[in-house]
Amino acid sequence: MARFPEILMKHLFLALAIVLMVSGAVRAETACLLVAEARSGEVLYQEGSGCEERIGPASTFKFPLGLIGFDAEVLVGPEQPAWPYQAHYPAVRAIEKETTTPRSWMHHSVLWYSRALVRELGAERFASYVADLGYGNADVTGDPGAGNGLTHSWLNSSLQISPAEQLTFIRRFLVGNLPVSGQAAASTAAIMPHFETGGGWTLTGKTGTGYIKEADGRRGNRQFGWFVGWATGGDRTLVFSYLTKDETSGQSAAGPRARDNLVSRWADLLD
């Protein structure tokens, strides 16, 4: 009988470990959370010390890329162009191995569609658009000497942006201060994911997940997660920029975790 507590504790620790593995639970710190009024730019809430620190935009770059694609008329509507998956495209999820449209590209964050869109734009037009938008450091050259700017520049490579710059970019979009057509702006907004939260608010935004670089520049095992966009409630429109950094390696994607966390917290932030 003396061994019972020890055996029980071992089983409890084992059960906890299994739960953590299955759920992908991992501790994440808030690098930055900013919430501001869209019209005035007044910051209503700030958390974290990394709001000026630049990092790769990861899949949040699909938002400006959507603006570019519609403005350049490569993208022509929510369901066009519908590009078929090809076997040589890198894809892990089943949803990525299907014919993809602008709407499903944005909602399911399909990387190969981004790359196909950038190829259609071409290197010169792509770089010119990003520079004209003033997006982060606007550097789409990619990894040094790799010549992979068209496929990797936004994946924590040369293109870098801070949470504060993400907030400013979203606000510029909402007040019509970006060099794209009104139709391109409306078409991009129409394909963005929406998330309902408490208190009559709807959050519209894009997630992004990447891997934090080690001191030597190599990709590490810890993830960072983005969720950026805007929130509407009644006659108010707010902008938000949220960046988290995992303290340990995790199983689930950090971007969706950041999104779910902010959706669950939203009503409390505005109290």
Summarize the structure.
The chain has 271 residues and is an alpha+beta fold. It is 37% helix and 21% strand. The N and C termini lie far apart (53 Å).
Largest sheet: 6 strands, antiparallel
Low-confidence stretches: 1-24
Number of helices, where a helix is a run of at least 4 consecutive DSSP H or I residues: 9
Overall mean confidence score, pLDDT: 91
- Give the strand order of the largest sheet, numbering strands 1, 2, ... along the chain: 2-1-6-5-4-3
- The geometry reads as globular
Strand content: 15-25%
> What is the radius of gyration?
20 Å
Structural class, please?
A: alpha+beta
Amount of helix: 25-40%
The H-and-E topology, N to C, reads as HEEHHHHHHHEEEEH
Distance between the termini: 53 Å
| Total count of strands | 6
Explain what you see.
- The chain is of the alpha+beta class and 271 residues long.
- 37% of the residues lie in helices and 21% in strands.
- The protein has helices spanning 4-23, 62-71, 102-108, 111-121, 123-133, 149-152, 163-174, 182-190, 254-269; strands at 28-37, 43-47, 194-196, 202-213, 219-233, 236-246.
- The chain has a six-stranded antiparallel sheet, with helices on both faces.
- A hairpin with a 5-residue loop joins β3 and β4 (202-213).
- It starts with a helix and ends with a helix.
- Residues 1-24 have low confidence and may be disordered.
Key structural traits:
271 residues, six-stranded antiparallel β-sheet, 9 helices, 21% strand
